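ingest -> validate -> predict -> emit
validate: passed (alphabet ok, no gaps, 494 aa)
predict: started
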Amino acid sequence: MGRLNISSSTLTSQNQGGGNSKAGLPSTIGLRAFSWRIIRRRTNYCCLTGEIDTTGGNDDDITYTGFTDGSVYTLAAGSIMVGGSFTKFNNETISKGLIKLNDDGSPDTAFNNNLGTGFGGGDAYGVSVRSIIEDQSGNYIIGGGFNKFQAQSANNIIKLDSSGNIDIDFSNNVFGGGENGFTFEGDDFNAYVNSIIEDQSGNYIIGGDFDKFQDQSANNIIKLDSSGNIDIDFSNNVFGGGENGFTRNGSGGAFYAVVYSIIEDQSGNYIIGGDFDKFQDQSANNIIKLDSSGNIDIDFSNNVFGGGENGFTLSGGNAYVNSIMEDQLGNYIIGGEFDKFQGQSANNIIKLDSSGNIDIDFSNNVFGGGENGFSSGSGLIPSVDSIIEDQSGNYIIGGRFDKFQAQSAKCIIKLDSSGNIDVDFSNNVFGGGENGFTVLGGGANAYVLSIIEDQSGNYIIGGTFDKFQGQSANNIIKLDSSGNRVAYPDWKII
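emit:
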C-alpha cells in the first residue's frame, strides 16, 4: 500500500491576525460538509492530513490517518501547534481540539499528556480551537469555541505555558470570582474568539463573536494584559460614554458584527477587519484603525469613509474583510468577500497606504483594462482568505476563486508588490493543463485558507483540497517560490 508522508518543516508564520471562514468541506476526510458563511461566524482552518507517497501502491490503498473526527482550523509555526475540532491523531484518541507536534512531525508526548481531557463545551458544532499564538515568553494563548479546559472554566480562551500547563494566574483573573469570560447575549454557548494578537507591549488584543467579557461591554474586541486583566483605558475609549463598539445594520437580529482579523502595524496601531458597518455609531464598513488606546484614527477613517464613501461593499450581499497584511513598506493589503471599495472595482482585494488611500498603481494593474481581479465560475462568490508577503516582497494570495484576470488561478496567485502576476509561478502551477487545487475531482469547493513561508522561502499551503495538479495533496502542500511541488521530509505511517 502507499505511505502517508507528513512534513513538519520549521515555519515562519506571516498570518497576521488571520481568522477566516469557509464552506463545502469534503466529508470523505472527516470534515463537516456545511458552509460557515450561512451562520454568524467564520474561522480559519486548514486540514492537515498529509500528502501521499504512492511509490508503494495505489492511492486507493491508503488508510487515511492524521487528524480525524473533526477539522483542523489553525496552525502555529515552529514546534507546530495544531488546533481544531478533531479528537484523533493517527487513529489514536487525543485531547480534543489541540495537539503539539515536534519539528519532525511526531507528537510532543510530554506537552500533549499535560493537556489531559482538553477542551469541552462549544456550540451545536462542538468544540473548536480557532486561534493560537505563542507570546514573547513562550506561552500559548488559545481561543475558539469552548467553555471548559480540563473541566475548569475557560470560556473561549486559555493560556498554557510551554509545557502545556494552565497559567493559573491568567485563569484566575479571567474566570475567578464568578467571572465567565466571553459571552454572547448572556450565554457562553454562542461566543467565539476568532483572532488573537500580542502587541509590542505584550498585551493581548482579542477579537471575535461576543458582546461581553466578564459581564462588561466588549462588542467583539477586548484588550488584556499578559495576566488577563482588562486594559481599562482601552475599554473606556472603545465602550465608554454609551459607545457600543462594533455593530452591523444597527442592531442584532439575524446578523451580528464579528471581528475576523486583527493586526498591529509598525507604528503600534491596530487594524481590525470583519463583518460590521459601524464602530461607535460611525461608518466603518468592515475596517477600522485604532491607536493602542482604542481611539479611532480620524485621518484613516476620513480617507476611507469620508465624502460619502462607504468602504467595502458587495453587490447583492454583505461584504466582509477576512485577511489583513501589512507589507514591508507599511501598506495594508486587505482581502475578503467584496467587489467594490469606495464604489470602485476591487474584487476581493485592495491595497491602501497607512492613511487609507488607495494604491492607484496596484489597482490599475489588478483591475485596469477591463480586468476584474478574482472570479469564480462555480456559482460561489469568490473570496480572498489568506495573504502573506514573502521574503522577496511578493504577495501570495489564497482563497476561494478559480480565475484571476480571466486566467487560471485555482485558489492561489502570486503577485509582485505592484499587482503584476508572477508568470513563472503561474506557469508552473497552472501550465500544461494543470488545474491547481481541486477537491473530489472538481474545483468548486476547493479553498486555500492558510499560507505561511518557511525559512527557506518555500510556501506551506493549507485548506480544503485533496489534489494538486491531479496528484494527491490532502489539504496541505509545500511549493517552492517558483510554484514547484517540494517533497516533505519523511514522516511515514504505513
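The two ends are 8 Å apart (CA to CA).
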